[in-house]
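Researcher: Please predict.
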Amino acid sequence: MLTSTSGFNYLQAAPVPEPGTGALALCGAAVLLARRRRQR
């Protein structure tokens, strides 16, 4: 959980991101992992 020393929860305060942003992040991570595997 992302909480500061005062107990403020950033996850509850932050707006919910669009599903597309999460999908793009997963795709980007998959591409990076694929490139690393090909280099080895």
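Model: The helical segments are 10-13, 19-39.
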